[in-house]
TrEMBL record:
CDD domains: EngA2. Belongs to the TRAFAC class TrmE-Era-EngA-EngB-Septin-like GTPase superfamily. EngA (Der) GTPase family. Keywords: GTP-binding, Nucleotide-binding, Repeat, Ribosome biogenesis. InterPro entries: GTP-bd, GTPase_Der, KH_dom-like, KH_dom-like_a/b, P-loop_NTPase, Small_GTP-bd. This is GTPase Der.
Amino acid sequence: MQALEFWSLGFTPLPISAVSGTGTGELLDLVCSGLKKIEDPENLDGEENYVPAIAIVGRPNVGKSSILNALVGEDRTIVSPVSGTTRDAIDTEFTGPDGQKYRLIDTAGIRRRAAVASSGSTTEALSVNRAFRAIRRSDVVALVIEAMACITEQDYRIAERIEREGKGCLIVVNKWDTIPNKNQQTATYYEQDVREKLRVLGWAPIVYSTAIAGHSVDKIIVAASTVEKERSRRLSTSILNQVVQEALAFKSPPRNRGGKRGRVYYCTQAAIRPPTFVFFVNDAKLFPETYRRYMEKQLRSDAGFSGTPIRLLWRSRRKIEKNGVGKANQGSCSLVKFNRIITP
């Protein structure tokens, strides 16, 4: 009724509820639309000169250097059937078909820590450390696996490092020509095997290539460019909350043993690279890991974000005590990283 009275005076009110969170997303969008954007010349120049870095990583002798040479069109790195030829992370500037510049980082093969330690080679240990640093300073990681070898435990360890660092990723199945008797179903069956063994990268696109012959290497850059755009994408608060409300309507949060049920008031995107979303809820403890994974799955299904990990931050509503002093719930924030819940 109070809102209707303002309409009669010629105003356009925005009804909201701070308790339930109704209308708060629209209010935030309206406030942000009225703010003037102040362009920082230094940041503006930084965005214009921004060159995405693509790290090419994997086990020894899977064809990482061959991929880099095929992409740039010349022999920038030494290619040899002997594993361990590449010893250092090599940066190479590259311009894609669309004119976008990239920095390609060829890295040394990453063997298991026990294998490196048993070899007693200080050089190899340093090379592996440089490869891990290349992942950390990259934007997108191309995880290269050998088609005939398929997925090994070491591939899974590298995949975990990529997801933990919050980097975009694509899986490159190299030496695809070595698979005998291929047919239309071969790639489908192979992808099922990769998804089963690399569940931590279930969101990463897969590219099949034969780098030494130059087959399908251009698809690697196309996929990497798409991943970088998805990793840098930002959703408006209104669209994001529409996706969240549809997910809540399809499946409500479960009740705990005391009969309490979690409530989501609204959600907003707090950061990019990787995309980070903040859920404002009544109590973060009422949302179990299974439901958080469900919400992440719905976000990917309805909003995209292919090729990039996403982070979900759950924030509890502050309880107002009798003395009027707001006190946050203990453990009110928790960061969801795929299948793991981390409480800062």
